[in-house]
Design a protein that fits this description.
Elements (H helix, E strand, L loop, with lengths): L6 E4 L13 H14 L4 E3 L11 H15 L5 E5 L4 H13 L4 E4 L9 H12 L6 E5 L1 H4 L5 H7 L5 E6 L5 H10 L4 E4 L5 H6 L4 E4 L6 H12 L3 H15 L7 H11 L16 H16 L11
Parallel strand pairs: 1-8, 2-3, 3-4, 4-5, 5-6, 6-7, 7-8
Helix pairs in contact: 1-2, 1-9, 3-4, 4-6, 9-10, 11-12
């Protein structure tokens, strides 16, 4: 296995300048904060990364820039979210050329593919690349579920190695472990049930609020891994109001506003998204400010 599917992997936000161009300076600031906190990988171009608004050349620039920033310390993954099989294969090939070490893959966009079509889509891409693949299973937001029976077929492709488990059903972690053991690694993908999923056997966490709070997120993972469950729960309980900002249609704006408060981002989003305003903005600011007032002192989680 070329990627260790474990630990905290931020689904990082894409930074934009006031002129709506890539802001690589602020982006590097945030990536370095993630590395300093001890994350285990970086995921580019997901929902939080505003993938649907990015040009192909911007995705490639983000990939090469991130590879240069991390300098091999952690693997860099890029999300594949395409409308056609041909487009997905091309995106995977470009990712490999640009130095990505793995792919996170959604089912086809726009068209609601059936089970057989979904399986053939993933297999076609897997057979076109040597990169390891994590299937992003999020039927709540993307309306296509990758079932265990479908994974039976998909796992015939050796480089399909992991699932980003976002069904919102914690018991699915146990179902996957019972069915596939360690053959299919599990990265939980929903912030508000992340610790519960890790305790039930998930291998890692593709996280959202980590973009603004990297140390707290990594601390939760490392503490539970070390068996210091009570300490992990205490941090997680403090974190929950912030984590709930991730399960919201405005998750990008919410998390980018949180990044401003922790000094590692800006509020700039790409239209049609707009920064939060009015009462909605006030509510999010209240959550962020209340959390910062009570921010926990973390143990030396890097040396457990």
């Amino acid at each position: 296995m070329s990627i260790q599917w474990k630990g905290i992997m931020p689904a990082v936000t894409t930074k934009f300048t006031d002129n709506d161009e890539l802001d690589l300076k602020t982006f590097e600031l945030n990536i370095n904060a993630q590395l300093e906190a001890g994350v285990h990988g970086i995921v580019l171009g997901g929902t939080l990364g505003e993938a649907s608004t990015l040009l192909d050349e911007e995705k490639r620039l983000l990939t090469t820039a991130t590879v240069d920033i991390v300098k091999g310390k952690v693997p860099v993954l890029i999300n594949i979210a395409e409308q056609t099989t041909k487009g997905a294969i091309l995106a995977a090939q470009k990712a490999e050329e640009d130095g990505a070490k793995g792919l996170m893959m959604l089912p086809p966009m726009r068209y609601k593919s059936g089970d057989r079509e979904t399986v053939e889509y993933f297999k076609a891409v897997a057979n076109s690349t040597s990169l390891p693949i994590m299937v992003y299973n999020n039927p709540v937001d993307y309306k296509v579920e990758v079932t265990l029976n479908m994974f039976d077929e998909l796992l015939k492709c050796k480089n399909i190695e992991a699932v980003k488990e976002s069904t919102r059903d914690i018991s699915n972690v146990t179902r996957i472990k019972n069915r596939f053991g360690d053959r299919l690694k599990i990265m939980t993908g929903v912030d508000t049930i992340a610790l519960e999923s890790l305790l039930m056997g998930a291998d890692g966490w593709i996280a959202g609020l980590v973009c603004a709070f990297p140390a707290e997120t990594v601390a939760i993972y490392e503490l539970q891994k070390a068996g210091r469950i009570k300490e992990a729960i205490e941090i997680y309980r403090w974190f929950l109001p912030l984590l709930e900002l991730d399960i919201n249609p405005k998750l990008v704006q919410n998390i980018k506003l949180a990044e401003v408060y922790t000094g590692i981002g800006t509020e700039n989003v790409r239209a049609p998204r707009l920064p939060l305003h009015g009462e909605e903005r006030k509510q999010v600011i209240n959550i962020i400010e209340d959390s910062l007032k009570n921010r926990p002192t973390l143990p030396d989680y890097k040396n457990l």
